[in-house]
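Weekly modeling sync, notes
Attendees: AB, CL, MP (scribe)

Item 1: holo prediction request
CL wants a bound-state model with tryptophan before deciding which constructs to order. AB pointed out that an apo prediction alone won't tell us much about the pocket. Agreed to run with the ligand included and paste results into these notes for async review.

Input as submitted:
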Amino acid sequence: MSTSTAPTGKPAKAASPAKRERVFSGIAPSGTPTLGNYIGAIRHWAAEQDIYDNIFCVVDLHAITVPQDPAELRFNTRQLYALLIAAGLDPARSSIFVQSHMHEHTELTWVLDCITPTGWLNRMTQFKVKAGEDRELASAGLYTYPVLMAADILLYQTDGVPVGEDQKQHVELARDVANSFNNRFGETFVEPRPIIREVGARIMSLDDPSKKMSKSGSDNSYIALIDEPAAIRKKIARATTDSERTIVFDENRPAIFNLLTIYQALTGQSQQAIEAEFAGKGYKEFKAALADIVVATLEPVQQRYKALMDDPASLDALMAEGAAKVRPLAQATLRTVLEKVGLR
Ligand code: AMP
Ligand code: TRP
């Protein structure tokens, strides 16, 4: 993206919407969002809203590739949507919508399914992990999950997709699918690229720092964005440390390193400043300071979240507006695709 001069020769306006790159981010409503989701993804999305033309999508269709309880899925989708807005995604600046509210995603998926070689899907490493021991029992939806993801991305002529390493392969597949369609039917899709965050802090489990913090871990292993202050303090107080005493960023001491990483992510201070602040102090004191920071970060998020969840009609309206904002583009892309393939 260039901010120097516009093609007219006039100086480009800073962050002119027409010039900004389009970025699509998806997050699945498959449980309660954690501090790991916030530090690793959501807060960056919020911070980058003026850099990119952003589309954020709660991918409920991806969630059902593995079994979900219907009532829980319904709740989790609303909860995640409300939390994204509470955590700073701004419906005025970004488009924020629920995937299943836009039938264009499933329609495009079918067309893309029919041009994607099964050999490409067989190479997807996430399927192998998620399918588990008995691959024959995994759903066909889990197998074609990357094609639905490609449809999400391609429907909006997306330039970039911010993802972690684990999703890079899926974005590359989307690129290959776009390229293959373009070659066969003529220029139709922008070919997207993955945007991999360089300093992506990976937050680890509080009771086992060898595992990623995840809602699928034990109750004390993660901090949920909606945890009460007392629960947050208790979980941090109980977090695993080690038998040493110093509070320093040492990757060979993963438990304390992880707590320090959380502290650094939420305060924005340098490692040196943090080490200096806690030099000569004990784990108990550090943990209390960390708990204060986490509580203070989440408190305003939780207040906004509660206000949104207490007003279901307004939340419904926000969801409908989000879908309405992206609909013209999705419809235009889908119409072109159907025509090119001979379905219209
Ligand atoms: P997931 O909940 O695994 O679908 O992840 C949603 C987003 O949150 C992705 O961008 C992940 O990279 C990010 N994320 C999830 N867990 C963590 C974690 N423990 N640390 C950092 N980022 C995470
Ligand atoms: N598969 C992504 C994940 O597990 C979620 C996702 C679905 C997504 N569709 C997307 C991410 C489109 C980026 C773009 O994290």
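Recorded for review: The two ends are 36 Å apart (CA to CA).
Action items: CL to compare against the apo run; MP to circulate these notes.
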